[in-house]
Amino acid sequence: xxxxxxxxxxxxxxxxxxxxxxxxxxxxxxxxxxxxxxxxxxxxxxxxxxxxxxxxxxxxxxxxxxxxxx
Length: 70
Known about the structure:
Helix content: under 10%
Order of helices and strands: EE
Distance between the termini: 38 Å
Shape: globular
Oligomer: single chain
Number of domains: 1
Structural class: little secondary structure
Largest sheet: 2 strands, antiparallel
């Protein structure tokens, strides 16, 4: 299988892989449909410093999420 290189934009700045320009710096991405998203056709979140920051991958629907080291 041919390896693809894509750009992933992400606004979850509490993630270890978040990089300048709202880019994901992870080597790979795993995203999953969770039960909370079962009846929606898009992922919904809230932007803002400190407001409802994600603490676990389950809160982002991104299993690659890793909390940023303090």
